[in-house]
Amino acid sequence: MCVIVVTKDGVVVHAREVDDGCSDDGSGDDGSILFSSPPLFASFHHFLFESKVELLRNRVVQQPSLTNSVRWLQIQTSSDLDLHAQLKELIPEQQERLKKIKSEYGKVQLGNITVDMVLGGMRGMTGLLWETSLLDPDEGIRFRGLSIPECQKVLPAAKPGGEPLPEGLLWLLLTGKVPTKEQVDALSKELRSRATIPDHVYKTIDALPVTAHPMTQFTTGVMALQVQSEFSKAYEKGIHKSKYWEPTFEDSLSLIAQVPAVAAYVYRRIYKGGERIPVDDTLDYGGNFAHMLGFDGPEMQELMRLYVTIHSDHEGGNVSAHTGHLVSSALSDPYLSFAAALNGLAGPLHGLANQEVLLWIKSVVAECGENVTTDQLKDYIWKTLNSGKVVPGFGHGVLRKTDPRYMCQREFALKHLPNDPLFQLVSKLFDVVPPILTELGKVKNPWPNVDAHSGVLLNYYGLTEARYYTVLFGVSRAIGICSQLIWDRALGLPLERPKSVTMEWLENKCKK
């Protein structure tokens, strides 16, 4: 373990040795960098004297703090490439942490529930434990404390300066530590070894009409994978509940490994005559997904790495994440839980929105042309709103600013496709839509969300079938949802069972 301290300006201070097992709780009043072994300590001293502090600074990120100007960040330095072994060490610590929270703070009130919250889909209620990510209304998503720009800086990439590898985010979500490139490569290799799809899965999908929605075919394929569930087999044999997390881990890694191949088959079946493309043993998770879809361009592979990473998790209250957590709380295995999550993701108010955005943008082009003026665009937006519809891709249930996932996709487009007509149209929408929605007065967040941009990028590289886009979202969500399912079982989280009431109960309660 290596714990780093930097100032707000990124200045690295001196190092000293500590014993193995030291904590990263902010102790060390001398502002030291803590290393757990003499070789690491000596190596870092040499690093400083060689004036290469900037290289280390690039591997360290800062997190705003209301109380101090330093951030303690645990960087993975272990030579252990086995993710299961890492979790076996971490889980007992986190189990004790949860017990302490229960015993010391179990009666602490977190807020008041209002009738509006009950009637508004439980919006704003604090009622779920979700360790892997946290969504702030103003800052956006943080994965284990790291923002998207920070993840882009510190997570290993396929090439220098490239987009983060999804396997690195998986390691981060599960352990809370930034992995080394060697650990990410080892995880890539393990996922490839688990990616073989049984023939019955393809036959099950083939039993559906080829005209069935891609999400229907994808979810059916995931359900067909369920027969291999290690958790279900272990539960039938009588596994102790303290060990639930281990077969859940096995199922989750296999599921994460297999969903790109299932999703790619659905795409090839519907749009490319059904010819399957096998896994390439030289490629990483995101690169292989693009390859199996039939896109081997390096930029498309980079886009898929970015896409899978930023869509992977968005805390636990969204429909797909919450559904997976809810179904898993009944001790349903990861396959059943994730299939349920996919059915939630398929809804027009959730993952299907990325499909709707591109279709709407193309409708703008069809009516106004590619060189649409600002006035024409304003007229079309008002036409959409006055017809009782929404402008897809704008607004969010939690965020109160432009979605950071939108911004990183915008940066990708500015780098790789600045002159694309549809991207230029998206840029105009970024300027035109928020003032109109603000004028309308009914939208709390008039800014673009993640769905406002992804379709244009995919369309540019040739993946033009908007009806398929939610499947891409589903593949990404496997990483976040399955990571949390492992921790649900490790922490022994209980069956989810909130209390429901009737309108009569509410009326009587409020009268009192």
TrEMBL record:
Enzyme active site: 350, 396, 451
A Pfam family matched in the record: Citrate_synt
One GO CC annotation: mitochondrial matrix
Keywords recorded for this protein, A-Z: Transferase
GO BP annotation list: carbohydrate metabolic process; citrate metabolic process; tricarboxylic acid cycle
Domain of life: Eukaryota
Molecular function as annotated in GO: acyltransferase activity, acyl groups converted into alkyl on transfer
Keyword Transferase: yes
The family this protein is said to belong to: Belongs to the citrate synthase family.
This protein's name: Citrate synthase
